[in-house]
Predict the 3D structure of the following.
Amino acid sequence: QPRGSARAQGRRAILEKFGGAATGSAPHLKRAGGTATVKAMLLEWCRARTRGYQHVEVQNFSGSWGSGLAFCALLHSFFPDAFDYGTLEPSARQHNFTLAFTTAEERAGCAPLLEVEDMVRMPVPDAKCVYTYLQELYRCLVAKGLVKTKKR
């Protein structure tokens, strides 16, 4: 079976699971260079928003998100009154994911594309799932006017 069709099947599986909510690139992130550039820009945005948060060092879309603290830090950077980040522990993964995804849904209007149970079950989160979720979160924050984008 050709590699391309396996990749396409993977994409279809993600879209089926997530209902296609985050198809396409995040608004105003598209630049010449395609998907790799969009991914790099989204990763850099996450890095910049979470810089300085204890126990968080965003390097990729998989292991960097494993404790749930990177999601919490990202959301806390927009909604500092939502919870006390300083009380969170890396080992309390279920609590961290629940807090982050609930905050994203309630405060940013982000669709619940990731399940806490799935995230806790995986020692290292799936990069495609995390990337898809972060694209959707970015879109929601742009829609709420919380992320400033350059008009073209």
